[in-house]
């Protein structure tokens, strides 16, 4: 059994990707689903012999998750029951590959044969999606008004989870070569773990590892390119060991995030010293999340001493354990020195460390989030 899952923000990109994969694997069956505004699910199945089946189902709730659970999973089970060995699955636009794969694992077993999780997108549109402040519904990508995710949130989530990114350029509006090249370079910065395939023939099957894919999407996780960045997009890494002053950090955060397509990492904030705080900044939206206790050791503030910065490899400190601030920022023409200066200005001074945190305000209310 061999399953290939193709997710996308755009139904046209998904369709192009599935057609290209079907041409490469003529023995595979292809399932493509679309969810309409009235809750109708349109499922099209292309068999290896070229026969096309079309099926409509009306859901009680206009829900992307129900589409996967009540239509996609049974359809895959039916194809497997009739002996299909390779199935290419194209969920509705806006459905995360992880959602589809999780449902398939639940129904078919944990070892359900997922070979590739592919995200199909038009490279020249990636930057626009990231900076789109509308919801998926408002931008016309899903028919679900309650879906409050932005296009950038969906895109970054898929780039983190999927093992392959397939460039898809629907033949509607000609794409400028320089815009496409800029988008491809941004994709390489945002998904350093993934294969960036400019055509379906370049896809390497068998690269999906579910545990690793889920791990890449956990709050606070940072994945950066192994090779030096090239213009115009770069990824800046900054680390600092001392806890952050919450008010100074609140004022500096907007400046650090300015121009960042993606800001992510973990924070050690003085008013929540026992909590690992994840920071998410995708285009115009930034938020913090309390992810629970730091790993290992009892929570405590370090004694006053020299400020210690640490390098690009995660480290363990005998006094601090795994605590510390670790930020990665990806954007166009970022100033690494300025971001480092801003972050350093937020750390507690010797006097503040000696005085303790009792007098500090908690503008983010982080200590009570968990």
Give the strand line-up of the largest sheet: 4-3-2-5-1-6-7-8
Order of helices and strands: EHEEEHEHEHHEHEHEHEEEEHH
Instruction: Summarize the amount of helix as a percent range.
Output: 25-40%
Largest sheet: 8 strands, mixed
Number of helices: 10
Write down the overall geometry.
elongated
Distance linking N and C termini? 41 Å
What is the strand tally? 13
Portion of residues in beta strands equals: 15-25%
Structural class: alpha/beta
Uncertain parts: 297-318
**Radius of gyration computed on alpha carbons:** 23 Å
Write down the overall mean pLDDT: 88
Write the layout of secondary structure elements.
Blueprint: E1 2-8, H1 11-24, E2 29-35, E3 40-46, E4 52-58, H2 64-81, E5 86-90, H3 97-108, E6 114-121, H4 126-130, H5 151-161, E7 164-167, H6 177-190, E8 195-197, H7 210-216, E9 233-240, H8 246-257, E10 260-267, E11 275-282, E12 285-293, E13 325-332, H9 336-346, H10 350-355
Parallel strand pairs: 1-5, 1-6, 2-5, 6-7, 7-8
Antiparallel strand pairs: 2-3, 3-4, 9-13, 10-11, 10-13, 11-12
Helix pairs in contact: 2-3, 8-9
């Amino acid at each position: 059994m061999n399953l290939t899952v193709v997710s996308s923000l755009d139904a046209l990109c998904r369709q192009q990707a599935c057609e290209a994969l079907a041409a490469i694997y003529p023995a595979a069956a292809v399932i493509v689903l679309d969810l309409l505004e009235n809750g109708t699910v349109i499922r099209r199945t292309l068999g290896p012999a070229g026969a096309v089946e079309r099926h409509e189902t009306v859901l009680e709730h206009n829900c992307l998750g129900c589409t996967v659970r009540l239509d996609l999973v049974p359809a895959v089970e039916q194809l497997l029951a009739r002996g299909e060995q390779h199935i290419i699955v194209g969920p509705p636009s806006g459905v995360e590959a992880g959602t589809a794969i999780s449902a398939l694992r639940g129904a078919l077993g944990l070892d359900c044969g997922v070979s590739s999780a592919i995200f199909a997108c038009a490279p020249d549109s990636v930057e626009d999606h990231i900076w789109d402040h509308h919801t998926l519904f408002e931008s016309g990508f899903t028919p679900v008004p309650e879906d409050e995710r932005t296009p950038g949130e969906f895109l970054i989530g898929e780039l983190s989870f999927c093992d392959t990114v397939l460039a898809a350029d629907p033949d509607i509006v000609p794409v400028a070569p320089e815009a496409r090249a800029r988008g491809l370079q941004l994709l390489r910065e945002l998904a350093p773990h993934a294969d960036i395939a400019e055509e379906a023939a370049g896809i390497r099957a068998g690269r999906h590892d579910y545990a690793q894919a889920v791990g890449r999407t956990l709050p606070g996780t940072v994945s950066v390119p192994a090779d030096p960045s090239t213009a115009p997009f770069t990824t800046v890494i900054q680390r600092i060991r001392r806890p952050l002053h919450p008010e100074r950090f609140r004022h500096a955060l907007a400046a650090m995030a300015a121009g960042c397509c993606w800001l992510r990492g973990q924070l050690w904030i003085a008013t929540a010293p026992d909590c690992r705080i994840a920071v998410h900044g995708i285009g115009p939206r930034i938020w913090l999340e309390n992810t629970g206790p730091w790993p290992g050791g009892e929570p405590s503030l370090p004694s006053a001493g020299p400020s210690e910065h640490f390098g690009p490899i995660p480290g363990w400190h005998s006094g601090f354990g795994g605590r510390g601030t670790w930020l990665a920022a990806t954007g166009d023409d970022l100033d690494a020195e300025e971001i480092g200066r801003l972050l350093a200005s937020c750390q507690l001074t010797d006097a503040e460390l000696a005085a303790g945190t009792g007098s500090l305000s908690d503008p983010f209310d982080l200590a009570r989030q968990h």
